[in-house]
Amino acid sequence: MQINWEAWGVIGQWAGAIATFLAVYVAVKQGKPKVKVRADVYEGWAPNPFTGKAEKIFTNRLYVTAVNIGTVPVKIVNMGFRLPGKHRYAIINPEPGVLPKVLMPSEEVSIWTDEQSLREKWNTDFAIAFASDSAGRIYYQHVGLKKEITRFIRWNIGKIKNN
What is the per-residue burial (b if ≥16 Cβ within 10 Å, else e) of 8-42? Predict the structure, then answer.
């Protein structure tokens, strides 16, 4: 049996090409900013200094939080919710000094608003929270496939009802 060295050479060239492609792919993906956005409604409880019992200090605060899960710093300049229709946003104005903020890897920033007033004003779904950075990139809250399809239809058609 004779060994075909040309075939082995071709296999080596293919392996080298695949390794080069993977190295370039990893290098390109590493430098991209990644931000995880979430929106949650919270109630605040604190102990009463006189009775020692827990009392509700606030209700229905809607927090929008952006976390830098990438390896590069990201400057977050706006946060809020995407509304039905094309290019409509409800931007939440935070307390002074909160935004803009440069997020180093694994840092987060949160802003809050009253959930009831936002729901009455915009009748929005809180699964469409966003954060935008100084480069103009917009990061949306991660949702399941069904919600993504509903969100796409709402943004482009704007006539689907909220569930």
Answer: eeeeeeeeeeeeeeeeeeeeeeeeebebebbbeee
Confidence at residue 67, expressed as pLDDT on a 0 to 100 scale:
96
Q: How far apart are CA 38 and CA 140, in angstroms?
A: 8
State the DSSP code for 162. P
Residue identified by tokens 């920033």 is 109
Enclosing H/E stretch for 44 = strand 35-47
pTM of the predicted protein model: 0.72
- Taking the C-alpha atoms of residue 28 and residue 30, their distance in angstroms, rounded to an integer, is 6
Place of tokens 């009831």: 116
Tally Cβ neighbours within 10 Å of residue 85.
12
Q: What is the mean pLDDT of each run of 10 residues along the chain (163 residues)?
A: 82 94 88 90 81 80 92 93 77 87 94 81 72 93 86 71 52
124 near 81, Cβ under 8 Å?
yes
Cα–Cα distance for residue pair 17/144, rounded to 1 Å: 36
